[in-house]
Design brief:
Protein name: DUF761 domain-containing protein
Helix content: over 70%
Oligomer: single chain
Mean pLDDT: 76
Number of strands: 0
Strand content: under 5%
Largest sheet: none
Number of helices: 2
InterPro entries: DUF761_pln
Shape: rod-shaped
Low-confidence stretches: 24-30
Number of domains: 1
Structural class: mainly alpha
C-alpha cells in the first residue's frame, strides 16, 4: 500500500521531534532559540508602537473633523 504525502510528512515531523528531544547537541540550539525569541518581541513592540501612533493620529483627525462640523453647524445658524 502506498503512503500519502501527508503520512510521509507526518512521519518526518515525528522523526525530527525525536531527534530534538534526544540529543546532547541541542543545548547550543536552545541558546540560539533564545536570541531568536527576542527578535519577534521587538517586532511586536514596533508593531504595537505603530498601531498606537496610527490610533492617536486617527483620534486627532476625528476630533478636528468634529470641531469643523460643529463650526459649520454654528455658521448655518442651527
Amino acid at each position: 500500500m502506498r503512503k500519502s504525502q501527508f503520512q510521509v510528512s507526518g512521519e518526518k515531523k515525528e522523526e525530527e521531534k525525536r531527534k530534538r528531544s534526544h540529543g546532547g547537541a541541542d543545548h547550543g540550539a536552545k541558546k540560539t532559540e533564545g536570541s531568536e525569541t527576542k527578535k519577534p518581541i521587538e517586532d511586536i513592540n514596533a508593531s504595537a508602537d505603530a498601531f498606537i501612533k496610527n490610533f492617536r493620529q486617527q483620534l486627532l483627525i476625528q476630533r478636528l473633523q468634529s470641531i469643523e462640523n460643529y463650526e459649520q453647524m454654528l455658521a448655518r445658524g442651527l
